[in-house]
Model the fold of this input.
Amino acid sequence: MDVMGDKATLFESGRIVRPAERDEVGEKGDAVETGEAVEELRHRLAAEAGDVEAMSVLGAMLLRRGDLDGAEPQLRAATAAGDRAAANNLGVLLHQRGYADEAAGWWRVAAVAGSAAAAHALGRHHRERGDEPAAEYWLRQSAEQGHTLGAYALADLLEHRGDEGAQRWMRAAAERGHREAAYRLARALDHMAFEAQETGDDNGVGASALEEAEQWYRQAAARGHRRAALHLGAILEKRGELKEAGRWYLTSAKDGEARAACALGFLLRDAGDTESAAVWWLRAAQEGDGNAANALGALHAERGETQTAERWYRAAMDAGDVNGAYNLALLCAEQGRTAQAEQWYRRAAYTGHREAANALAILLLQGGDTTGAEPWFSKAAEAGSVDAAFNLGILHAGRGDEETALAWYERAAAAGHTEAALQVGIARLREGDEQTAERHLRCAAGGGSAEAAYRLATVLDARRPPPPAHELGESSQEKSECEEWYERAATQGHRRAQVRVGMLAAARGDVVEAARWYREAAEGGSRNGAFNLGLLLAREGSEPEAALWWTRAADAGHGRAALRLALVYARRGELAEGQRWADRAVSLGPAEVAERAARLRDALRQELSA
Done:
């Protein structure tokens, strides 16, 4: 499943201090509070006695607690005595009060004294004011001292400028446990792997980058990064590790990631748990995920709840998912609401939805608007719709523009379109390019086209040396490749292929197999199948049943079958019936049959008039 995450730009000002949660056991919570109070009192007494370090620590404690008024005098006193940690914390306090410039002054004091945290804060201050050279200087000072947040902020600044050194610092921050850095490093590696695959110049770089990206996604996800958990789930799902993928999707979804909830829904649906899937899709859709809304729409449409389906498709559109308009158009088309279907197809097509453009063109073509259909077919084809390229081939072939039609067929065939490959194969056969034709017919036949399998078999059949003669019932050699293709087409219901398989079986002496295929073709409406089945039955001594199949074939326009019936009835002495079938054979042909039937008819007429 392909998931796309937006690049986040985060600045972290320091450790997030959460108020202590009261323990379920009151005594324990009281003990913690008492311990903190004792610690604070100890530092306060030391500070009052002039201990600079105690002043700094006490100021930091009060700052963390949110007591700015109590913290400020302690921090100022410690700063005046040269404590750099106090200078940094004084800057934090002033920044919280809204005195950014004064805060920056104290951060500078602390940074010059070697405080990595102050250098980081000062770098962020300069970046917020647009002074990127100063920001880079101080952030680099912080990063080079091993400050995790400084390394991340420097990487973010360099990445914003497109500097190649960004990844080095992003990696440094990630290695020190910064989860957002780990996530963004993974995204960069992911992008590198994708580009390597797209250009085809991989040389193992793509696979290596993807493997490393997974490791960083895993690290960030383990630290609670919900988008990292989403991407890690997608990687695992693509690899077929569905159980672990589901766990990460669940983790991400519980943390509020709508795309993870949607992906988890699809995973559950594929596992057969539609009800649970719907629960997660609903959660994701309510958070504005258009893909989930579409999935809910499809689910309700399958259940016949078209009004609910339509509501969810509209919700998908409202969420900015163009598939909502396309799916709504499909729903309207199924209900025969053609005008509305066209409206929604157009809405999706104008946004570049290639399948909607193709469907709109088909709708217009069905309504007789060929002129209006062609531009939409072209737009869809240029956007990569294989079906649209094939449909353009049909459109131009219908106008007699075979050259343009072939060009579109070749384009669709190159993208794997089975019927287009068949059409290219047929065209190349007409031109005498048997080698190219065979290649395309093999592609189409391999894609499941019965007609392609039959035509490929005829090409291969024409190259075979004549088989040795065999009596019926006598075994012969193994089946050739052409017969295998005939059989593939025959099993797909291709009537001419069924007849041909029957003929090849008969040539091998396999009467039972020949009769089976002739009968199947005949029952499917093949007059040649009925005629050949009649011949087989007559040879086996079942002339009455043979006559029934010849009758079916003759009624369908088979001249040889009509001539056979004329001969059967003549031998039986039913001269009038023989003459009637002879007349029919004359009218049906072909020429040699018509000539023989005419002689038989004249002979029967003379005998009747004698």
Observations:
- Confidence is low (pLDDT under 50) at residues 1-29, 470-476.
- The longest helix spans residues 26-48.
